[in-house]
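Hey, quick one: can you model this chain's 3D structure?
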Amino acid sequence: MDTKKHKYLLIFVISLFSNLTFSQISLAATDVPVWQMKEIELQAANTYDNYYADVTCWIELKGPNFSKRIYGFWDGGNIFKVRFVATSPGKWQWTSGSNQPDDKGLNNIIGEMNAIDWSLQEKQQNPNRHGFVRATANGHALQYADGTPFFMVGDTWLAGTTWRLPYRNAPTSEKYVPAPGIGFEDAVMYRKKQGFNSVSMIACFPNWESDTNPATYADSSGLFLRNAWEKFEYLTDDGEMTSKNMRDEYGNLPFQMSNEHPGVADFDNIIPAYFQSLDKKMQYLSEVGFVPLLETVRRDNCPAWKAYFDFNESYARFVQYLISRYCAYNIIFSGIHLDWIPREYSLTADEFNEALTYHLKKYGPMPFGQPHTTLISDSTYVEFGHDQQCPWLTMHSVGNKPRDHGVYQPLETLFKLEPPYPAINFEPYYTGWNHQINMPGGERPPADSVRDNYFSRAQMYGSVLSGGLSGHVHGTAAYDITTTGEPDGMRPHIWDALKYESANYMQHLVKFILSEGDKYQELQLASNDIQPQKAEGSPPRGLDGWSYMMRTPEKDFALLYFENQAVKPVLTGFPQDNTYSFQWYDTINGKWGDAIKIKSDEKGTLALSDFPDGQNPTTRDWAAKILGN
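Sure thing. Here's the predicted structure for all 629 residues.
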């Protein structure tokens, strides 16, 4: 067989004790590339009252340097599926099993395949072919499985899983400009042209519906069932706005609704059709080289979940359902969207930690090594702890509050933790959002104005150079995907927000950070060696006047960022009497200035050239790079 032609081979060897019919056997005279999702379909021979809750199935997957149990998921009727990838070239084998040992359709099905590697050209066509994302050896950044750097360049589409960005199964134009009628593929490719490689989405919103109840409401016992985003101008009889509806393109909900508890999803009865719609979006993202952040649910669904169900068991089952369904794609997984922790509208961080630790003990970690994190209101370390305090967490984050200088010390704290974990700011300043938590220094600039876009840009560079070397996630006020048939309210339509100038600055951030290849992964915190690091009178809760630096331990490479109104400093802590190359970088247009030579004095101090605008303090923001000769 000529493996160089990348023909795909998938041979199922059926056990003598199996009752599979010939129509279930998939035969194709081809090999299977590594890191490409493969799916096995199993048909239960027995009948169950609740296929989702009663049946757990899996395969024992073995290959070169790999031996793990990979769980499957129920996909409707009597159908179960197991999705997996080969992580390296060679022979792979599997045997199916389940918690229903007498079901001949689920147990003792065996198969094998031969996995082959992608060519260099094929990897260049889709970076996901470099393998799934994981931490670098030093723990501070992310890389693909083969060691290729992965710097997350994300956008925030929290409701992108729903009908609000419909999957159309149609090509989009290279010249497409966002407009009413936008589809999922349109939005993804528009962002890809701007250098993005990720979007952040919540898998589902179970208790949300545009109905006769307010966006935030409690049941007769006083238990709040949701704290949802408002559907603007759609009012209840009491004159309050109802919730945004979050069904899929075909009107499917993610769970059946409870007959016993009105307004509450029946979290033990999932609706596979909803997730079949999401499958198409996840597959598309994989094919175009994106690594999405996929989150379980928003925290406001969980008080009712815990009150009316066996929460640890039920929540762990759902977490595993998502992991089973999407673990064979290159993803970063978030166990909960914990953007705010008010007792009325959320469980505590300790309760989520308990449930996610329960999941880990029952099902194990991400089977193919992808990071498990959460979006958080302040810091995952503050809320969950570190390492064995939250053994399921493998990537830290900050976000949401504060969206100003106050976020940088928590990022530095994350960077200093031992053992080190990758860290990122998942929810920095959002352009165009009229909200009190999105007002650095109390300012609320007009949407898409110079000042609005500057705040977004400042958080990009400040977050990364405070230790968030995993990348950065951009955001706008359209995180909720306000769309066709809905008026502007506190948040704009998605097609308008996609065109905000702030998104264009993300590609310049990547160009800057990766200007010396993967060397950025070695950077260490060094802002304390900027003198002065903060301009006199610069606001602690604003985004003006501060400066940032990270530098390698050898002190032969440093990256710097200077906010608007920063003063020209001197840099300390360099080797004495050394000559360096210094370049200014324009964060607005992504252009480098001419390299100049600077030399450290006998104390290891570097004096910088004037800001490119010739002002001190500067009247806008700048970045810079220092290289040793």
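One thing worth noting: Residues 1-29 have pLDDT under 50 and may be disordered.
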